[in-house]
Every structure is written in C-alpha cells, then in structure tokens.
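The freezer alarm interrupted the setup, so I double-checked each line after restarting. Inputs confirmed:
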Amino acid sequence: MTQQTMLTILILMPIFCGILCYLIREKTFRSLIILFNALLLIIASVFLLKNGGFEFTPSESWNKAITICDFAILLYFLFIGLRTGHVAIIVLSLLQIGPLAYFEYTQGHSLSVTPSIMIDQTAIIMCLIISIVGSLTAIYAVQYMKDHEEHLKLSKSRQPVFFFFFILFLGAMNGLVFSNNLLWLYFFWEVTTLCCYQLIRHDLNTESKANAIRALWMNLVGGVGFIFAIIFLFNIDPNLLSVKEIIKNPSGAAILIPLSLLCLAGFTKSAQVPFQNWLLGAMVAPTPVSALLHSSTMVKAGVYLILRFAPAFQGTALSKMVMLVGAFSFVVTAIIALTQDNAKRLLAYSTIGNLGLIIMCAGINTPLSITAALILLVFHAISKGLLFMCVGTIETFIHSREIERMAELITRLPLLTNITVIGIFTMFLAPFGLLVGKWAATEGLMSVKSTSAFIAVIMLVLGSAATTVFWTKYLGRLINKPIAPKESAPTPLAFLYKFPLISLVILAISLSVLVIPFYNAIIIPAVKQLNYDLILTAGSASLFTEFGSFATWPLFILFGFALVLPLLLLKAPKESVVPVYMCGENAPGDDCAFCTMADKNEPLQTGGLYFMDIICESTMEKVCTSIGVFILVALFWIILR
Amino acid sequence: MTNQILIAIASILAVPIIGGLLRGFDRKMTARMQSRIGPPILQPFYDVIKLWNKEKNITHKNQLIWAYGYFGFIITSILVFALGRDILMMLFVLVLAGVCLVLGALSIKSPYSHLGGNRELIQMLAYEPMLFLIALAVFLSTGSFNVNVIIASGTPLIYSLPLAFIAMVIVMVIKMRKSPFDISLSHHAHQEIVRGPVTEFSGKYLALIELAEWYEMVLLLAILAMFWAMPFWAGIILALAVYFIVLIIDNVFARLTWPILLKFTWTFGIGLVILNILGIYLLRK
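Predicted 3D structure, all chains:
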C-alpha cells in the first residue's frame, strides 16, 4: 500500500462512506458499507503500523478547501446559536470566526506549512485505537441502532444521519492525529466537535437537545483557545504553525501562553474538571455514541493534544498545573463515582478519572510518565469501549442502566455478564494492562520531587482506593446469583453484538499478557520519537524501572491457577447445595423469603452501598467545578505573570 | 534462580505454621486477659483440620472460585514480598485478594453475607490509601520500591518513618479484624456468630479462607518488621511487640461503627502518613 492510498483510506474513505450511509436508505446495503469501511480501516491501520510513519504534503488546493470547510462549520455553529438563542454559542463562534477571518485575510493566504501531514509513532498508536476500537464500535452500532429504534417504535429511521456522523467522526479523528499543520489540526478539531454535537442530540428529545447544546458550547471554549493559540504562535514565529517545530524548539517562556491555550482546548475536549459536565450529559445519546466518545475518539483527542505538546512545556509551571488538573479530576470523579448507581454515569466518571490520570502523566513530563500515559491510553480505550458496549447490550435486554437491577444477570445472560466482569477486571486489577500503566504512573510521580508532585500523589492514592471500591461494588452486583436459579435457557446474543465484544476481550487480555512485546514494539518507538530517554526497560517476564519492577505473565499464570482453574475443575455435587443462612427466619416453602408479621412472606432483597448520606453528588459537582475554575485561573495567572 | 525457588517454597510452607502459632497465642492471651484459661496454643491447627474434613456444603459453585482466588492471591503477594520484588506490585495483588473475598460474599444472595461484603468494602476504602501512602513513604526514605533494596538499605526505616509506622499499626488492627475496627467480621467469635463475608462458607472452603488470613497476617507483620530490617531479630521483635499491642487494643476497645472508621482513617490515619512524607520533603530541602 502506498502512503497516499493509506492516507486516503484512513481519512477520506470514512468521510466518503459516511456520505454513502446518508444517501443510501436501504438497511442491508448500509450495513455492508459500514462493515466494509470497518474492515478496510483496520487493515490500513495495521499496514501503517507495519510500514512506519512518514511525512506527506498534498497539493496546495487542500489548504483552501480546508479553510472553506472551516468557515462552513463555524457558520453552522453560529446558526445553531442563533436558532436556539444560546448567547454563549453565538459569542464563542463569533470569537472564532472573527480571528480566523482576520488571520486568513492578513497572513493565511500566503501560508504553507510543510509537511502538512506528519505521522509518527504516537499518531500511529492513536490511529490504531481509532481504527480498531472505533470500527468495532461501528459494527456494534449496526445491531444496537436497530434494537434501539425498534424499542422507540420510530416511524422514520434517523439511522442515515446517525451513521453519517458516526463514520465521519473516525475519518476526522484520523485526520486530527495525522495533521502537522496546526490549521488542519484545528479544522479536524472542529469537525469532531460538530460530530459529537450531532450524535448527542440524536434522539431529539428535550434532554438530549439540551445536553448537546451544553457539549457544544463547552467544546467551543476549547476551539476559541485553539484559534487564539494559532495566532499567538504565528506572531512569535510563522514556522511554529507546525507541530513538529513546536516540539523541536521550545522558545522559552513566550511560547507558554499559546501552549496553555492549547492545553485548555485539550481539557475541554477530554472533559477535565471544570468541563466534566458535558461528558456526563452526553450519556443520553445511544450507547454506541458513548462507547465511541469515551474510548477511541473525542476525549482521546484532548488527551492526544496535551501528550503531543508535552515535550514543549517540559519543566515549566504549565507542566505542573497540567499535572494538578489531571490529578484533581482523577480524585473527585473517583469519589463521586462511589455514589453512582447508574452504570453509564459510573463509566463516564471513571473515564474522566482515567483521562485525568493520563493528563497527570503528561504533566509529570518525565520519560517514565510519558510511557505510562501511552500505556494507559491504549488500555483505557480497549477496556472502556468494551464496557460501554456491554452496558449498552445489557440495556437492550433489561431496559435499565441501574446497577442494582443488574443483579442475577449472570443466570440470564451468562456470556454477556462474564464479558462485562472481565472488562471490569481489566479496568483496575492486577495484572491487567491498565494497572501496569497506573504502576508506571505512580513510580513516575514518585521520582519527581516537588510540592505539586506531593499533592498529586496524595490525590492519586485516595482516588485509587475509591476506584477499587466502586468497581468491586459493581462486580458484586453482576456476579450475584439467585438462590434457586430458574431452569430457563439463557438469552442468546446477536452475532453483531458478540463479535465486537469478544474481539475486544481477546484484545484486552492478549495485550495484557503480552504487554512486554507490545511495549517493545509499539510504545518504545513512540516515547523515543517524543524525545524522551527510555527509563522503563523490559526483561523477559517483567518491566523494570530503576527502582521497581512489574512481573507480567508470571502473574497471569498465578491468575489462571487462582481463578480460572477452579472455575473449570470444580464440580459441585447437587446434594451439597444448601439454602443460604437467614438466622432461622426462612419462610416455610420459600428459600428466598423471610417470615415476617402475621406469617407473611417478605422476599429477600440485597443491595449495594452508595454512601449517599456522606457524599452528595450535586454539591460535590459544584465544589469541584469551582475548584477547577480556580485552578484554570491560577494556571493563566501564573503563565501570564 | 534455584535460590529464589527455595525461598518461595520455604515461605509458602513456613508462613502458615507461624500464622497458626500466632493465632493460638492470640487466643491464649486474650483468654488470660479476660480471666479465662483459653484453648491450647495449637487449637487453630485443630480447627482448620476439623473444618477441612467437614461436609462440603455450598450455596453455589461461584462462591468457591472467589475463595480460591482469595487464597491464591494472598500467597502470590507473599511470594512477591519474599522474593524481594516491587512493594507496589505486592499491594496491587493484595488488593486483588481483598476484592476476591468481597466478591465471594457478594456473589451469594444472602443478607448477612451481603452486609459483610459491603462492610469489607468500607474497610478496604479505609486501609488501602494508608497502605499505599506508607509504601510511597518507604520509597521516599530509601529510594526504591524493591523489597530487597529496602531491606538492605541499612539504617532502620522507623527513624525516618515513625508516623507511617503508627499508621501501619492502625492498618494492622483493621486487617486483623480486631476491635475497635472489626466492622465486617470479628476475628473472635465472642462478638458474633454470623461472620460477615464468610457467613456462607463452610467446611474446607472456610478453612481455606482461615489459612489465607494467617498468610495475610504474617505478611503484614513482615511489612512491620521491614521497618527495622537490620539486624534481622530486631525487626521480628518489633513485629511481635506490635502484635501484642494489637491484642491489647482488641481487648480494651469495643467495636465502633463504620462512619467512625472512615472518618478516623481518612483524617487521622492518612494524616499521619502525609505528615511523615511532608517531614521527609522538608528535611531534604
């Protein structure tokens, strides 16, 4: 495959296929296009990994086309603002149109940045995440949207629009991670904002419309930051419109202002405190959208931007503030998540927390922490994509997102529940990949000796404890079995559900087992290309830092001995199964009921603990939003001083 | 390599013997403090053997997997420690073991088991941040997460980490399920007959959990001993002294409620370690 074909497939084909999905109203044909697109994306991304990165500059006319499209999108945002009468959107889109028009009019027309496209190992990792996890989500969406619309009993299908934006999103994300020209990057950035807005409001009810508007204005804040950063950078040095140049020669304090504006854009997109609200509101969208936003696209764009520019602000005050914003987001979301009994909101909070962890690593800005950030990035995408799809599938069966209602699911949907359990295991337990990242993050943080690192490490530890508790609580609900299981056949799972779920489970487990070869082959080149020395070294069975080690596959062998072998070998003879102990209050003839007043049978109920009387979600939210705003103000105050 | 295998096998075999003897000593001492004669020192071993040969009653198969998981991961964390590997990794595995115990309790639709499981989670929320912060404090003091480097570092850790050591004693009280913080299940049957997360386990599987608790107790004592690792015997005396203090605490206090546990550990307990870490930072500068 030549470089040009690869780029065409990864960026332009999804856009083309999206348009086809919009035009073709025939369901089967549309599904085939989606499958074809997914397959080709996966193949092309693997080819890209095999062939390695490259630089590319297409003809000059592309610059013009992108500028025109840029204005079209911004004017559309302005139109939305005018139609809904939302002042913030009007102001924020004008704040982008004005500067962009000024910039294009005065300098932009004579501008050319070479190369326009630069693909390095970090971009390849992102492309793999987008193309593989994103495509699997698209396949999943085919079945989900069918069930979703049947459940809603829609007279007119909105799937053409849905899949147009869904597939377009993948292409825009690939464009975003490949762009070297900041103006191109900005364009794709706005396209993802647009797609996100459209996908959130897909169901067109009052709540989804309101939440889509909120997502839009918060992301436009980032867009404003972005365009001002571009103008700032241009005024310092016209060459700095190239990502490559920014990373290569950090020109000291002057460049910090635009860089902090870019970090602000990154915070909005990856929903860091105080912008966490939009991602939680995005939960009203159909589940494949959540899976897409949380695992492979949208939020990863923000993280990518910060990671990408991390080498440029190494050792500055900005770096410390980025670390604190990430650590703070991690701890507050973990604590709020303790109170959640809505599975999707729980997952959303955990996403913000994990992104906080990655951003914290970017802020620590040492070779070890950047390594940790990349490991976390990959494993989080896989695990979170998997978990969202699991919850979505569960929802199509029980029509609820409440964790309490997922009790006893293991008898009804054994395969799906087991996949969900594995998914949660990969999120926070040893020896899975995400924890390898957390381990490296902790050791990276400890090797920095500063007051801000001290504050961040305390937040990290407190957040980790809360994380363990909320995930375990959720797991406990899922594996909860009724005393007398009904002898009914388990509900079968549709193939288009099974395929992406099982692929992701296999990916999560095999990458965790083979984390050392994965690290050697994929992460190491990325860290080196970002101009960091290598500190995490890989042995045959362990990863080593200069002061610690993490055994990988030996732990998996023990894992197998402790959990999988008993699961396969244990036989429980029928006669040894006894009812549970209820302190002598069992109702006669019913093992699942207490005997209460007037000999009535009161059914036995069990439930989780949600700390509602200790932690109040709405108060916590307000407090952490204001602290978040305070941190941001402090950030700009320190930089501008 | 063969050396390491020998250490691993030795620790797996020796640890339950030490643990059982300590448990026997515990019961004897507690009885004496309450003016009873108490069982023989070897009683815990008789108990486990008796349990092992009992009829195997279960409510369903899944709960057993978690019992094996609890046992298996505790041993894994012992191995990580005995082989002198990363102390953070040891804690991660220990957390995994704790999660297995909770899942064993929650996998059954049983009121007492659920109560115990949820309370066990609260205990994890209470001691986990303390344990991690202690590990980080140890790192700041020695410059390494590897147990063998920490042990070989010379000057006793307790000089630089006195407050972290006190926090470790608190963790010990919670982990050994001693009053005042035995909220999920009490080690002694004198407070309850229905025993929280292990309510639904019986026979061989209860024995397995009991054994795992012995392993875990010795592991925690070994962490305490690490605070005075050179010379070897000083650490052992230190650990045994703490063990004795924990027994006295157990017999002096009554059980407290879980909100008090959370408030106590998240302010006083965590505060102690943070102060200690802060001290190290300030003295460095």
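Quick read of the result. The mean pLDDT of chain B is 90.
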